[in-house]
Design a protein that fits this description.
Elements (H helix, E strand, L loop, with lengths): L2 H13 L2 H8 L3 H15 L4 E3 L4 E3 L1 H28 L5 E6 L5 H13 L4 E6 L16 E5 L9 E16 L20 E5 L5 H13 L5 E6 L2 H9 L5 E4 L11 E5 L6 E9 L5 H13 L6
Parallel strand pairs: 3-4, 3-5, 7-8
Antiparallel strand pairs: 1-2, 5-11, 6-9, 6-10, 6-11
Helix pairs in contact: 1-2, 1-3, 1-4, 2-3, 5-8
Organism: Zhenpiania hominis
GO molecular function: DNA binding; DNA-binding transcription factor activity
Pfam families: HTH_1, LysR_substrate
Length: 300
């Protein structure tokens, strides 16, 4: 498997046309056909259904597609990193973060970039359902995550960064929007819920279920997504309601949704940054100093 094969596969997946894919890559159509054929031979599956009239991805092709994108993106990032180092960059910092409205991370990165402009910073968004902090190899210097994701281990140090308050996210004009603190949770029994999937964010999912269980009802869940934007889009379209960190509601027009903060002690998620005590990367040591200088004073 090589990058030319991956590029050809992605081009055909995008255009669903071998001729157009060849033009896109400035190569003969026979080259695209050969690279797809070789890739299928190596994988042992058909990636496309091909007839005289159309080209379609097979189920195997659809499964391989996101991985092919990751391969090409990783190659681009690697090439860019090498170029940066060749041109004078003086180190590399690798961060992993769950999707979170993390102003603390933004602030620290801004300071770090101003003080160390020659150090490459690589940020990867990861699912909060992934167990990143396990024994063995760790590709990241710091993990910005939920406190409940931390392993029971003395191997890590942490700083609590912020707390995300949960709220009801409703379509604009929803009857419950004006309830505010007077909202009766029992009114939610008849609502259609659109949630972040349990696989993507098990901590948020558990918080939602605990909230509903406390008021003795099970939410009528009509759909679940692995990304926040899809949830917000469906809510703004009036397809249902959700419970999310209220800071995420800022990602969509305020005229499309209504936010009702949940007035309950457990309706929040604590976020933190974690790193291994055996921190060897010199760039990471510089970033750690900034984290410690900027850590919130009002969070214990």
């Amino acid at each position: 498997m090589n990058l030319n094969q991956i590029k050809s596969f992605l081009s055909v997946s995008q255009t669903l046309n071998f001729t157009n894919a060849a033009k896109q890559n400035d190569v003969p159509q026979s080259t695209i056909s050969r690279q797809i054929h070789d890739l299928e031979q190596q994988l042992g599956v058909k990636l496309f259904y091909r007839t005289k009239r159309d080209v379609r991805l097979t189920e195997e092709g659809r499964t391989f597609l996101p991985y092919a994108r990751e391969i090409l993106e990783a190659a681009k990032k690697g090439a860019y990193a090498v170029k940066q180092l060749h041109d004078g960059a003086k180190g590399r910092l690798n961060l992993a973060t769950v999707p979170s409205a993390n102003t603390f991370l933004t602030k620290c990165l801004r300071i770090f970039g101003e003080q160390y402009p020659d150090i490459i910073v690589d940020v990867t968004y990861v699912s909060s359902g992934d167990a990143l902090l396990e024994e063995g190899e760790d590709h990241y210097d710091f993990h910005f995550l939920y406190m409940d994701m931390l392993p029971d281990s003395d191997e890590f140090d942490t700083i609590v960064t912020h707390t995300e308050t949960l709220g009801l996210i409703l379509p604009a004009g929803h009857p419950l929007a004006g309830a505010g603190a007077d909202l009766n949770p029992s009114a939610l029994q008849k609502e259609r819920f659109i949630l972040i999937s349990e696989e993507e964010n098990p901590i948020l999912y558990m918080q939602i279920m605990n909230y509903c269980r406390m008021y003795r009802f099970y939410p009528h869940v009509i759909n679940q997504f692995n990304d926040m934007k899809s949830v917000l889009l469906c809510i703004s379209a009036g397809l249902g309601i959700s419970i999310l960190p209220i800071t995420f509601s800022r990602e969509i027009s305020a005229s499309s949704i209504e936010v009702v903060p949940i007035d309950h002690a457990d309706a929040s998620i604590t976020c933190a940054v974690a790193w291994r005590k055996s921190l060897l990367n010199p760039a990471a040591a510089l970033f750690l100093r900034i984290l410690q200088e900027q850590k919130p004073k009002d969070i214990l």
